[in-house]
Amino acid sequence: MKVLQNRLLFHLMAFSITAVWGTTFISTKVLLSNGMTPAWIFLIRFTIAYMGLWALCLQFRTKDMDGGSVNRLAVLSRSKKDELLFLLLGITGGSLYFLTENNALANTQACNVSFIVCSAPLFVTILTILARKAFKGSMMDELEDVRVGLPLICGTIMALGGMAMVIFDGNNLSLSVKGDLLSLAAALCWAVYSLFMSQMTNRYGTLFSTRKVFFYGLITIIPVILVSGQPFPADTIFNNRAVWLNLLFLGFVASLVCFVGWNRAMAGLGNVTSTNYVYLNPVFTLVGAVLILDESMTWTSAIGSALIMGGVILAGIRKSIIVKRK
């Protein structure tokens, strides 16, 4: 009974976090429209969250909050291999993911970005199947057992077809394609992150693992800012209430609270099951984009978006059935 209650709690956590993350597309779009750049949005957002994580690690350094078997105040993980994996997770779930997503939002509608990024569960499923077949070891054994079946194949075709319709919609084609392809890159980044984060959370605990990911995300975004020569947007932040309120929301709520909760949910549910909640993102984004940003969708994009969601859901059904039979 306790196991069932824990799983229900993890499902509720994943659903709630997805709802919050669906609104972050709107929040980021507001920041971009006020002159913030994608790299600075990420750096400020994750700096706020990183400082909050250190505060949590200090608060719970001797308490069993999140499992794991490492001192939460430790700087390094137990091996060079794990440290390199945290670097990969910091790039794919941090700097590169948000750089591609934020740049996508600067070049296409928030709705388009959200619907394409919601294809991440499909890529997680495919990468999980390939990883379990191609590699051996305890980390691969911890991945969910997903097998190829007709629903997965049909769902993949539907989702890819839907993405093609959204990306190659004739409305503002030259601008939209750049943004939509960046959205696809973001989805692939999140898929790689989701492939390994649950195992690292189980090994090191939620707080330590999330803190390491944020650290490497921040470290790897700094060269991008230095090369671009973008100055710190002090006037934009401190003289515009909408900007600093949205930055605080993205830093404390969407990054600190949600990443900690999401990584814990992934450890409890598995990398594929938890990531399937991502397909709910566009529902919340669409409502916010229409009400706040006054966005609209063409029929082609609307049909393509429906195909993406339908395909991802269909591909995920097969996995659920297999788990029940195990």
Structure notes:
The protein is mainly alpha-helical. It has 14 helices and no strands. The protein has helices at residues 2-33, 38-59, 80-107, 110-117, 120-134, 138-141, 150-167, 173-204, 206-228, 234-238, 241-269, 271-275, 281-293, 299-325. Helix 1 runs parallel beside helix 13 and helix 8 runs antiparallel to helix 9. The two termini are 19 Å apart. Mean pLDDT is 80; it is low at 318-326.
Topology:
Blueprint: H1 2-33, H2 38-59, H3 80-107, H4 110-117, H5 120-134, H6 138-141, H7 150-167, H8 173-204, H9 206-228, H10 234-238, H11 241-269, H12 271-275, H13 281-293, H14 299-325
Brief overview:
The chain has about 325 residues and is mostly helical.
Features:
disordered C terminus; mainly alpha
Low-pLDDT segments = 318-326
The biggest beta sheet, please? none
- Radius of gyration over C-alpha positions, nearest whole angstrom: 19 Å
Oligomer: single chain
Shape estimate: globular
Helix content: over 70%
Q: Structural class of the helices, strands and pairings?
A: mainly alpha
Alpha plus pi helix count: 14
- Quick check: average pLDDT? 80
Order of helices and strands: HHHHHHHHHHHHHH
Q: What is the strand content?
A: under 5%
Termini gap: 19 Å
